[in-house]
């Protein structure tokens, strides 16, 4: 598939083309990429040898093959990798597979739930959803050290008599354990889901309250 198709594939699976910023991340990605696979690295502009990830972060870590990037025919603005390294390539080439990943980012702005989801969809992919204990552990250990509000908005929303993640999956069904919200049938406007880092618990809160929030990309 070409790069655009690869990006669409990752988004449809609630992720993005892989971001690799350390040797450890490269080693993990290499296990999943035994043959050349698209990753999220692109030139910031044609003919410019500056490269950025999907979150617009300029890369400091690189793993180029010898004599790469070579920008053959002045048209190689995208990147593929295999188990040994990276090389630049034409973005419309259709011979590569794709390597997806999903990352969380804490936004230290106080917004309502609706404002938060709009921000995430404008600048990232969507409000975060948590589908495994490992992801929940990431929330509890890393984000707790950085958040400016006790609770943070997540992608949980009560709609049509059921809690859903904003990716369309039922909240309690996508985790290895149910989401123990304080109310499984909340009254309006307490129909937005947050996570409280003091109590380490899920909450249903007034959607108009203003919290920090977690996006994924």
Automatic annotation (TrEMBL):
SUPFAM superfamilies from the UniProt entry: C-type lectin-like (SSF56436)
Pfam families: Lectin_C
PROSITE patterns given in the database record: C_TYPE_LECTIN_1, C_TYPE_LECTIN_2
Domain of life: Eukaryota
Domain C-type lectin: 6-91, 99-216
Keyword annotations of the record: Disulfide bond
Protein name: Aggrecan core protein
Organism: Bagarius yarrelli
């Amino acid at each position: 598939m070409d790069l655009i198709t690869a990006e669409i594939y990752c988004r449809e699976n609630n992720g993005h083309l892989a971001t690799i910023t350390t040797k450890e991340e490269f080693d993990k990605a290499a296990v999943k990429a035994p043959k050349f696979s698209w990753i999220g690295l692109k030139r910031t502009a044609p003919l410019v040898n500056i490269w950025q990830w999907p979150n617009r972060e300029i890369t400091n870590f690189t793993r180029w093959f010898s004599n790469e990037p070579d920008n053959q025919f002045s048209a190689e603005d995208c990147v593929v990798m295999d188990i040994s390294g990276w090389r630049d390539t034409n973005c419309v080439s259709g011979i590569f597979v794709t390597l997806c990943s999903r990352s969380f980012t804490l936004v230290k702005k106080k917004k309502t739930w609706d404002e938060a989801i709009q921000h995430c969809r404008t600048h990232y992919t969507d409000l975060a959803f948590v589908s495994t204990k490992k992801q929940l552990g990431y929330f509890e250990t890393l984000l707790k050290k950085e958040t400016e509000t006790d609770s943070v908005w997540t992608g949980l929303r009560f709609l049509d008599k059921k809690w859903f993640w904003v990716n369309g999956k039922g909240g309690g069904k996508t985790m290895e354990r149910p989401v123990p919200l304080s109310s499984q049938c909340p009254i309006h406007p307490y129909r937005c889901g947050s996570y409280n880092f003091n109590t380490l618990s899920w909450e249903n809160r007034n959607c108009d309250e203003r919290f920090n929030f977690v996006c994924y990309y």
